Amino acid sequence: MAIFSRLGTLLKSNVNDAISKAEDPEKMLTQMLLDMQQQMVEAKKQVAVAIADEKRLQKQFEQEKQLSVEWEKKAMLAVKAGNDDLAKQALMRKTEHEKLALGYEQQWQAQKAAVDQLKGALQGLNSKIEEAKRKKNLLVARAKRAEAQKTIAETMDGISSTSAFDTMARMEEKINKAEAEAQATYELAQTTSGDDLKAKFDALQTVEADDALAALKAKMGVAPAVTAEPAPQEQQSMEEIEKQIEAELSAKR
Q1: Helices 25-80, 84-160: inter-axial angle, 10-degree rounding
Q2: Is there a contact between 91 and 58 (Cβ–Cβ < 8 Å)?
Q3: Cβ 78 vs Cβ 84: under 8 Å
Q4: Cα(214)–Cα(224) distance, rounded to whole angstroms?
Q5: Which of 119, 155, 169, 251 sits at a 20 to 30 Å CA gap from 101?
Q6: What would you report as the CA-atom Rg of the chain, rounded to the nearest whole angstrom?
Q7: Burial class of residue 140 (count of CB atoms within 10 Å of its CB; 0-12, 13-18, 19+)
């Protein structure tokens, strides 16, 4: 039995927690104001009934008091007429109406005090409603601000988390590795493919440039002229080169 009791307590606590989380402050405050205003309407009805009872008792008191005065006048008339028995009966009626008037007066005063209390309570309820209206906007603003702060805090917590930056670092490293591999593959492809033909032509252009420079120097009389033909395999002696230079200079003179 104890376990069922604990399970029941746990279930109730979970239900209450769920209800508490589901409560919307703005809706709850609006409903509270509606309930208070409904209480105000009911209270006004009760006050109106109490005021009506007060007016009724006051009217009955005044009527009985007036009847008492009238019977006293009749007793005086009977005395003037010399009819003491009739005067006594009139005075008895006067006394009855005085007693009724006194009773109605007491009821009227008590009802009047109750009405005054009800009016005061009604004014107090109206003041509370007005205060609740003023506080409602403030409380709703505070609730929304708290919710916004919670959202900001959760967002900041997500931003400050290092998991995203760790992932970004891993991806950057992976991309760098992929770029390096791609560059190496490209360079290797240039080395092993038909691009060596381009290297050969570049070498030819270098030879042509060397030949052009040598021709220019020969024209200026600085160095022997060379042809575009490949140089002979055997190297000339210094004496032969000097004789060749002198012959070319003599021919130009």
Answers
A1: 170
A2: no
A3: yes
A4: 7
A5: 119
A6: 61
A7: middle
**Strands, DSSP E only, in the chain?**
none
User: In angstroms, what CA-CA distances link 157 with 35, 150, 161?
Assistant: 41, 10, 6
Q: What is the dihedral of CA 251, 244, 249, 218, to 10 degrees?
A: 110
Amino acid present at 209: A
The pLDDT tens digits of the residues spanning 117-166 come to: 988 888 888 888 888 888 888 877 887 887 788 777 777 766 655 566 67
Yes or no: say if 64 and 122 are a contact pair by the CB < 8 Å rule.
no
Residues 6+ apart with CB under 8 A from 71: 90, 91, 93, 94, 97
Residue 79 · residue 91 · CB < 8 Å: no
Question: What are the b/e assignments for 169-180, b being 16+ CB within 10 Å?
Answer: eeeeeeeeeeee
| Cα distances (angstroms) measured from residue 150 to each of 145, 154, 158, 209, 223 | 9, 6, 12, 76, 88
* 53 Cβ neighbours under 8 A, 6+ residues apart: 111
Helix or strand (DSSP H, E) at 240:
helix 238-252
For residue range 203-238, what is the model confidence (pLDDT) as tens digits?
A: 656 666 677 777 777 777 765 554 545 544 444 556
Phi-psi region of 26 (alpha: psi -120 to 50; beta: other; left: phi over 0): alpha
H helices, E strands: number in the chain: 6, 0
Task: Please identify which residue in the block is written with the tokens 């809706």.
Answer: 27
Residue 119 to residue 111: CA distance in whole angstroms: 12
**Of 26, 33, 14, 245, nearest to 129 (Cα)?**
33
